[in-house]
Design a protein that fits this description.
By secondary structure, the chain is mostly beta strands. The protein folds into three domains: about 1-295, Beta Barrel (Porin); about 300-375, Immunoglobulins (Immunoglobulin-like); about 380-460, Immunoglobulins (Immunoglobulin-like), CATH 2.60.40. The chain has four helices and 30 strands. This is PorV/PorQ family protein. Keywords: Signal.
Length: about 475
């Protein structure tokens, strides 16, 4: 990744900062990423990944749609549309950005005012992302641009490239090249104006309730973005961030780098809002909606859960992952049918209280009904009891009993009688360790606990010399 980063940086050394056309391409298109200090390169995994890092498209399993509105100072408004369409291999992304500034007064060469006009820009995007290895993704995209400035108009195109990785469950990485291209204006017949090309490198930490990402962007000057997201409950998100560009902090003030926002997250629907400071110019407000539509096919899966001992159907919880994310339960006949499955591999997690859980994988063909019978084994219990003595005096010794096996736990014995009883412990092989007071040496042993039996094990502890 380091070699690729240095190679990409070398492509931009010929351009000076601030000389690129269509700066619209450097502005965050959605409130989610904008609220995080525009640091979204590593964790983008919805339709807006087409902008942030097209490799993120490869992470998307369901159809994804994002609609956003941005309100700027000077009556400028942006409308953005992004969608992601999963294919058998990889995901296709399509996007549209429209920006307009109305009521601009036109002055002629004699500096006399004329009629007003609206300046507008349009950007059309297409990209593709694919998983190249487990938790590693690659993507590429192209965009066409058109800019109407009343007295002139320009058109051009650009290339995007990206890679993304999750080497650990809590760590996401991303590297992307954005907007490598140029725009042509008719009055400048032989030259092209460069678009605002940039390289972005992101690293993100993701926990159960907390996420943070740091992005470093380079477009002949280094810009940093830092974002934090906190989910006190899964339906609500609070976001805060700071970015050092593309706005000029020296001109607009250090507070112009602040970003903030929130999100409401439902099962297949999310609503987002963000505000970004621009100092004395004002604030940019963004609102957006993200929709996820589960991908469906012509396949179905009929599951039946059976008690392995009695061979009778039983109720159980079912959780699916892989080509379909699903949680449900069987009916009283032990059956569950999942429809609309596409071809691919599915992982089936089956569990019920007092039964051993099981995990199975299955290849879904996607064009027919398939069946699977799952046998759950009831958990058989034992009782472990005994007494802990002093090896010389046979007096009771208080101690803690620690057990490790099919289940793990610890328990203290009766300090006066020295007795202990561990009830309803699943049968199996256990390592038992006795932790007495420091004046005694600890002991450990391995026991085989047989089903439906009471096993007695006494311990005789030796005092330290």
């Amino acid at each position: 990744m380091t070699t690729l980063l240095l190679t990409l940086i070398s492509l931009f050394l010929g351009n000076s900062p601030g000389t690129s056309a269509l700066p619209l391409l450097q502005l965050a298109p959605d409130p989610h990423g904008a609220a995080l200090g525009e640091a979204f390169t590593a964790i983008a995994a919805d339709a807006t990944a087409l902008y942030w890092n097209c490799a993120g498209l490869g992470k998307i399993k369901d159809y994804s749609l994002a609609l956003n509105h941005q309100s700027w100072f000077g009556n400028t408004a942006d409308e953005t549309f992004h969608t992601a369409l999963p294919l058998n291999y990889g995901t296709l992304g399509l996007g549209l950005i429209y920006s307009a500034t109305p009521d601009i007064e036109f002055y002629n060469e004699a500096n006399q005012p004329g009629k007003t006009f609206t300046a507008w820009d349009v950007v059309l995007n297409a990209g593709y992302g694919i998983k190249i290895a487990e938790n590693y993704y690659l993507g590429a995209g192209m965009k066409g641009c058109y800019q109407n400035l009343f007295t002139t108009a320009g058109y051009g195109g650009a290339l995007d490239l990206g890679i993304a990785a999750r080497p650990f469950n809590f760590l996401n990485l991303g590297l992307t090249l954005r907007n490598y291209g140029a725009v042509h204006y008719p009055e400048n017949q032989h030259n092209f104006e460069p678009l605002p090309a940039e390289i972005a490198l992101g690293i993100a930490y993701s926990g159960d309730q907390f996420k943070t990402e740091l992005d470093a962007r380079y477009d002949n000057q280094l810009q940093l973005g830092l974002g934090f997201e906190y989910q006190p409950v899964k339906e609500f998100s609070l976001r805060l961030g700071y970015r050092s560009g593309p706005q000029d902090l020296n001109e607009l003030g250090i507070l112009s780098g602040i970003t903030a926002g929130l999100g409401i997250n439902l099962t297949n629907l999310a609503l987002d809002y963000s505000c970004s400071g621009y100092g004395k110019l004002g604030w940019c407000h963004r609102i957006g909606i993200r929709i996820k539509l589960p991908r469906t096919g012509a396949g179905s899966l009929r599951l039946k859960v059976i008690d392995a001992d009695t061979r009778s159907p039983i109720w159980a919880n079912i959780k699916l992952s892989g080509i379909r994310e699903f949680s449900g339960e069987t009916n009283t006949f032990g059956e569950l049918i999942i429809n609309g499955l596409i071809p691919g591999r599915i992982i089936i997690h089956t569990y019920r209280k007092n039964y051993l859980p099981r995990t199975d994988t299955m290849l879904i063909l996607g064009d027919r009904e398939q069946t699977a019978t799952l046998y759950l084994t009831p958990v058989k219990y034992s009782i472990l009891t005994g007494t802990i003595y002093d090896s010389l005096t046979n007096r009771p010794v208080p101690a803690k009993i620690v057990y490790r096996g099919p289940v793990s736990g610890e328990q203290e014995n009766d300090p006066d009688l020295g007795t202990y009883t561990i009830r309803t412990i699943p049968s199996g092989t256990y390592t038992i360790k006795i932790n007495p007071a420091p004046s005694y040496l600890p002991q450990n042993c391995t026991l085989q606990l047989l089903p439906n039996q009471i096993i007695r094990k006494d311990f005789y502890l030796i005092k330290r010399q």
